Amino acid sequence: MPAPLLNETIQHIVAQALEAARQEGVLRLETIPEIQVERPGNSDHGDFATNLPLKLARATRINPLELAQSLAARIATGDVIDRVEAAQPGFINFYLNESWLQQQVETVRQAGNQFGNTESGQGQKMMVEFVSVNPTGPVHVGHTRGAVLGSALANIMEAAGYDVTREYYVNDAGNQMQLFYRSVLAAYKKTLGHEAEMPEKGYEGEYIFDLAKEIADSEGTRFIDQDDEQALKEIGDIGRERMVATIKEDLFEIGVEFDNWFSERTLFTGGEYATALGLLQDNDYLSERDGATWFNSTMLGDDKDNVVVRSNGDPTYFASDIAYHYNKFVKRGYDTVVDIWGADHQGHVPRMKSAVEALGIDRDRLTVLISQLVTLGERMSKRKGNFVTLKELVDEVGVDACRFFFLARTPSTQMDFDLDLAKKESSENPVYYVQYAHARNASILSLAKERNIDWSEGDVSLLTHPAEMELIRAMLKLPELVDQMAKALEPHHLPHYATELANSFHNFYENCRVVSSNEEDDAMTAARLKLVESAQIVFRRALDLMGMTAPDRM
User: Fold this and answer.
1) In which band, very low, low, confident or very high, does the pLDDT at 382 lie, cut at 50, 70 and 90?
2) Which region, left, alpha or beta, applies to residue 51 given φ > 0 means left and ψ of -120 to 50 means alpha?
3) Residues 300 and 312: beta-carbon distance below 8 Å
4) What burial class does residue 25 get, using C-beta atoms within 10 Å of its C-beta: 0-12 exposed, 13-18 middle, 19+ buried?
5) Four-point Cα dihedral 377, 379, 385, 388, nearest 10
6) Which of 90, 294, 393, 433 has its CA 20 to 30 A from that of 251?
């Protein structure tokens, strides 16, 4: 079982002091506000601080500094907390016990690859649905950002104790797929020297003709003699399956895998589309106007109603999405669902949440994250009809740089991908800087093993240098960060944490010689090797959560 989070431990200590003050009649409060504990920006103000006295000042009519002093006097120190101070204008600052910090090196070593895990999810069943590109073309750079975001978020949610399913929604129904099938058939005919017109607004990228040539090579001319309807069905099935296979391969290349690939078509063949719309009809959320069927979104506070079935009887993609979310929440019983969509779907969010509510599901159980646009340098721009694919970007900068750079920005902001920086092999490149710190860890431990140094009995109480203490403090932030990222659904903090951890490790490396040639320093060598070993565990954990490699050599 993971140890209690430090900030939660301190919250509990403050709550005990507050209750003691109430019992003694110092405070008269009917309700107690949330106790917020944060890490101060300036380490001189302690390891943690709370502004609770400021929040209580009006209700208690007590000067906040006096209140801070009163509460501080009731906070017990000892094992975890070394001392507590009241500070202007009404803060309580907490300073961790150095001997407790030293022992956390052993805690990290014992936790191993479980270090950083928390139990905030309590086994809740969660789906993270991401990428979900129409199988009409390869994954491009814009999709890649959402792919990295989704896979890292799923890793974090699992570390936080959620039961996570990673799902790709294959949009294999509707007009876009029909356009794709007709485009592939036309390209196939042209490839074999026959005249054919590409459909209006069809797909004309090079990949369509590459796909058509593959089909011609494997299937020969057999579709030429078929009538178009039969040829369209057969060649469409082959084209769709090959495109899905290509998407799987491309995503696998950047470490993105899915537990489930869900076909949109099964919503219609399995009856869930009819069930979901029937449920909306029964609850008076559907109406007939202008020959079409509308979802009455305005009944739930939206600014306009939305068509779910067109006048020709075809369902809109919104109708499919309603059925899909019925499947997620009702049929498969997910407690929470996170959808990651591209920027072009931003306007779709309010009506989707309204539809979920209309199905009888708490709308807050659905969260939609929007992944904004990505721009690249001009040298990766393509001629008309094409785009920069995931594979091309990976070939240019590598998997780890792809993942780190996409994760380092909040998904809600547009992003300029710095190709030149991503390729630099220097400390200017944060990817190189973080992985080099891990490689230094590995190098130190390898040297110790070559010299047959046994550090298993190292005495961590010898770790008193400020750089050692700073590194331990940095390591201990990971569990709190996992908890914070899981609650806020914000994986972008992870690359910044990894950089901060690398700063602390490089500082330690520069200031503290680890493997000494002097026998008199054997005890210090063993203690520091324990610290290096625990730091390596935390680096690997952070890199693993980001879906990156942890190289032993650079």
Assistant:
1) very low
2) alpha
3) no
4) exposed
5) -60
6) 433
105 vs 405: CA distance, rounded Å: 30
Residue type, 160: A
Token pair 């998407």: residue: 247
Q: Can you name the residues that pair with 290 across neighbouring β-strands? A: none
pLDDT for residue 182 is more than 60 = yes
On the CB side of 120, how many CA atoms lie within 13 Å of its CA? 22
State the Cα–Cα distance between residues 540 and 534, nearest whole angstrom.
10
Q: What is the pLDDT of residue 378?
A: 56
Kind and range of the H or E run holding 273: helix 272-282
Range list for CATH 1.10.730.10 in the chain = 425-545
114-163: pLDDT as tens digits: 999 999 999 999 999 999 989 998 888 889 999 999 999 999 999 999 99
Q: CA 473, CA 40: separation in Å to the nearest integer?
A: 13
Q: Are strands 91-96 and 48-50 parallel, antiparallel or unpaired?
A: antiparallel
Nearest to 400 by CA among 423, 431, 428: 431
Q: Assign a CATH topology to domain 425-545.
A: Isoleucyl-tRNA Synthetase; Domain 1 (1.10.730)
CA nearest neighbour of 354 among 302, 318, 304, 303: 302
3.40.1170.60, 1.10.10.60, 3.30.1360.70, 3.40.50.300: CATH of 6-96:
3.30.1360.70
Distance separating alpha carbons of residues 49 and 35, to the nearest angstrom: 11
In the three-class reduction of DSSP (H, G, I as helix; E, B as strand; rest coil), residue 156 is classed as helix
Bond prior to 495 in cis (omega within 30° of 0):
no
What is the percent of the chain with per-residue pLDDT over 70, rounded to a whole number? 97
**Cα–Cα distance measured from residue 441 to residue 533, given in angstroms and rounded to the nearest whole number:** 7
Within the chain, which residue ranges are assigned CATH 3.30.1360.70?
6-96
- What's the average model confidence in pLDDT over 208-222? 95
Give the distance from CA 343 to its chain's centroid: 17
Quick one: tokens of 539?
A: 């680096």
Q: Is 413 left (phi over 0), alpha (psi -120 to 50) or beta?
A: beta
Size of the chain in residues: 554
